[in-house]
Please model this.
Amino acid sequence: DVKVTQSSRYLVKRTGEKVFLECVQDMDHENMFWYRQDPGLGLRLIYFSYDVKMKEKGDIPEGYSVSREKKERFSLILESASTNQTSMYLCASRLGGAAGANVLTFGAGSRLTVL
Amino acid sequence: SQQGEEDPQALSIQEGENATMNCSYKTSINNLQWYRQNSGRGLVHLILIRSNEREKHSGRLRVTLDTSKKSSSLLITASRAADTASYFCATDMKTSYDKVIFGPGTSLSVIP
Model:
């Protein structure tokens, strides 16, 4: 089975800190995604990457950046954390390629609290 | 802006009853997927229906897709307490096939 591992299950950070959320997948997937999940809003796409060193903004990229130096790793960076970035962050990956039946495999999530 | 919108936001039923959740979306899609999330966990894929398909079954799940109305429905038959979870539809957009957008989800409670 494809495994998507998020490095931290729970994090508590202070306003203004730089935060790194790491995500690693072990099945050579091309596409990787970062979502944040908030009550009543569902999952909102922050950034996605369709290949190594390639990235695209999602619907809510403000305040975030990403890095994909290796195929298996997709990092989400909060340059200066703010309280409104307190949320559950979900990483996902999928095989990618031609448009078709590619489903997402999700990590367990990282719950970030910014004080 | 969100591509998909689920309806209802919350649903409570008795064990053994059927549960129906609806999803509407805005732009053309390659496929539509349904995912399930147990409390505080990651999402798990349930079923995918392509834009040229109208209905698909998987066990107790039945998904329909009406591209003319830009809507889909997920039916869970003979529900069980273990089906209690949040259910999300996700659209694989035709304009950007790498981009997968989720709706806000339906919270299903199945009462034993």
In short: Chain A has no helices and eleven strands. The radius of gyration of chain A is 13 Å. The CA atoms of residues 18 and 79 of chain A lie 5 Å apart.
